[in-house]
Amino acid sequence: MLTRFAGFFVGSVFGLAFVLINSGPPLPPAVSAVTRTLAVGAAVAIVVLVLLAVRKESRESAEEPEASPGPASTPQFGAFFGVVTLVEVALIIGGAQVISRLDGIPDQAGVAWVALVVGLHFFPLAWYWKQPEMLYVAGYGTVLGGVGLLMALSGYPDWVPLVSGVVTGAGMLLGLLTGLLLMRRGTGEPAGRQSGSSPSPK
After folding, report:
1. What is the pLDDT of residue 181?
2. pTM for this predicted structure
């Protein structure tokens, strides 16, 4: 059951990495430290909320086995996931090599390229895992990655780590955290749980 929330774990890892790696200039040191601390706190909160959600669903499944989600709602880490991951790694490494070798392209463009590729790789995973909430992370990372590339190529490379790194990571963490809080409050449901799946009264 824990694997049903794999998208939240994957997104939080990427979001936290973006913030921790890119929280530097032009941000003042004090702001960078606070930003990193908040990001770590958000990532920990995501893990705690996921574990609480799993515990709640396990208890409900034990009481009402017929209400438990079917196998289709569980993310699979099979061949499709492996292919998507390999393509993602190849694009990140290949793009970084191209950026480092081409004159006129600042190194900061690499941060935007990583954000763009990471954002794009969540689209097929959201479809494969049947977790539409991941589309937010996908679209957010893709857009800010593209914006960062435009900034790097138009003469504003110093701000790329902030936009495509810190803001991208913070948005991912905030979006995932908000989704989990809505699930916990009952205004949202985990992927794969249909509104009519609760058993009829006996």
Report:
1. 84
2. 0.76
